[in-house]
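Weekend entry, working from home. Most of the wet-lab plans are on hold until the incubator is repaired, so I used the time to fold the two sequences that have been sitting in the queue since the last round of cloning. Logging both here for the record. First:
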Amino acid sequence: MSHHIPQRYATNPDQIPLMTQEELRETYLIEDVFVPGEIVLTYTHHDRIVLGGAVPAGAELALTGYPEIRSDYFLEHREVGIINVGDTGTVTADGEAYELIKGACLYLGRGIKDVAFRDAEGSQGAQFYLFSAPAHTSYPAALVRPGEGTVRELGDQVTSNRRSLNQYIHENGIKSCQIVMGVTTLHEGSMWNTMPAHTHDRRTECYLYFDVPQDARVIHLMGEREETRHIIVGDRQAVISPSWSLHSGVGTAAYSFIWAMAGENQAFDDMDAAPITELR
């Protein structure tokens, strides 16, 4: 076993009006996702998701078992989606090496015992984002590079939300038990990442914001449509969005984000819209 995984317990909508801004951040925001030379994970009881980052920083990092998931090895009862948001790196799974350029996605299924992360030769800047959920069966490992998944062009420049959405792990792409995962990149001049906002009571979604300029921030909207709140998010920080919470956001500059979900339904369009005219 390795170090412990900090836990975030499940919450309900009635708690939101009573939370201070600091309590919101402590409950839903993960500020330190990527720490050089470490694998840093967080366990949320919303759909029992584990998310975090692995930064080899010139060494090899092994993904081991943790007391909180009661497994001898990490993927004994789980699956994981991995997206590299840094320089090129390599993930080795039971002896099979996969090279991930920036934006590439690797799926590893239940039952893979040995998982390790390292930088590619000549690179010391890989940053792997991990999103894991319980799995009831095993699906094959699969790698997809940027632009090779299902690409959807959404939004309009007129409404400042023109964006390219790469679907990687989904019902018509890489197969998984629960995970749905991809990357959205906003076009220059666009700042809204999801509009209209929406909820989906059948699954939890987490966002990792990246390529946010150093002097920029994203205002992430959450809560119920009649009781919205916001969290100010910086580069390479993650937000946990419970199934009952809407999720949308606007930045002070264009950026990218990884969206990842787990729950009982994998249909991407299974969502309940929350038009801006209904938000309070």
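Second, folded right after the first finished:
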Amino acid sequence: MYADDVQIYRHSTFENLGSAITAVNVDLSLICEWSKQYGLKVNPAKSQSIIIGSPGMISKVDWQNIPSIVYNGVAIPFSATVKDLGIQIDQDLSWSTHIKELSKKTFATMHSLRRLRAVLPIPTKVMIAHSLLLSILDYADASFLNLTEDQINKLERLQNLAIRFIFGLRKYDHVSEFRQKLKWLPIRRRRDLHVLSLLYCVLFHLKTPSYLKEKFTFLGVQSDLRSCRALTLSMPFHRTKFYEHSFTVQAIALWNALPIDIRQSKTLCIFKKAVKNHYSLH
């Protein structure tokens, strides 16, 4: 029996990179012993390892002499890109590989739907677009918050493909008024809505893991969480671009920019509707 995906993460400075790799190998050794004990198998030939950091840090790595990641005597090579739960992650989190993959999937889906464009009624095409096209663009979009303007525009064009499919528009027809008819947000605001929805769950759902909750604190009195909803979240100190574009910092910035009455929403459904209406008007 083969085990499901196993993932190990270690945080390290560039100077302590060797120590982090040693720690990962210790973890892998323990996993190897445990899997043998319970009759499970981990296939190192299908495993990957990656070092993620700023472009400056990645450029300093001596790939010829860096210690190897080893599982059961088999070296696991370092990769420039790895796939994790359907997301393509590259070394400096530029998301260029992932955006290319999204484009391929969207164009492939559009190609298969093209022959149906003229025969299906609009309500049916809207449902198809939601389930087969927007689902590709929406998946884990709260993860990549440091996209460049060019990448955002590429995703916007992919969303426009769905709008053209629904209304039978030509390549160079404007889609703004048709997006409004569908009550769809532009791709950037759509992502912001998903980020804020996730943050709302982190803040107010009782079953949220503590390691997520502790990243967010309200300014002011903390004795009654409900009464703190109208308050502002404390922005953590950040000086690197990596942290500036993290979910924590970006989600707090989006939250603090919302009107107080939206932050006071009593349920997730009410909150999402209020945020969507707010973004539609601004």
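Plan for Monday: verify the second prediction. The first strand starts at residue 69 and ends at 71.
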